[in-house]
Amino acid sequence: MAEKVTSFLESQEITWNQIYEGKGWETTLGSMHDVSAIPFVLLVDGDTGEILADAAALRGPGLSEFVGKILEARKAGEKTE
């Protein structure tokens, strides 16, 4: 199955990181982050790898507000939460 996933990602030119455990909904990472739908969105700090937000904060009107706060904090030199 991993070969099928890799082939699909290449054919669709999906270059960002993907995680595939091959266990359906019974995955370690899925359990850690309460994944209940696919796609599942996480906002990850590109410098530190820290997860800044998950799907709940990144849907609808809250998305631009949340990202705006993160960017403003970065400009001010504050640590993002």
Topology (SSEs and partners):
Elements (H helix, E strand, L loop, with lengths): L1 H10 L16 H5 L10 E2 L6 E3 L8 H14 L6
Antiparallel strand pairs: 1-2
Give structural notes.
By secondary structure, the chain is mainly α. It has 2 domains: 1-40, no CATH class; 41-81, no CATH class. It has 3 helices and 2 strands. The chain has helices spanning 2-11, 28-32, 62-75, and strands spanning 43-44, 51-53. Strand 1 (43-44) and strand 2 form a beta hairpin. It is elongated.
Task: List the keywords.
elongated; mainly alpha; 81 residues
Nutshell version of this structure?
This protein has 81 residues and is mainly α.
Structural class category: mainly alpha
The major sheet is characterized as:
2 strands, antiparallel
Number of domains: 2
Through-space gap between termini:
36 Å
- Which percent band covers the strand fraction? 5-15%
Instruction: Report the count of strand segments.
Output: 2
Total DSSP helices? 3
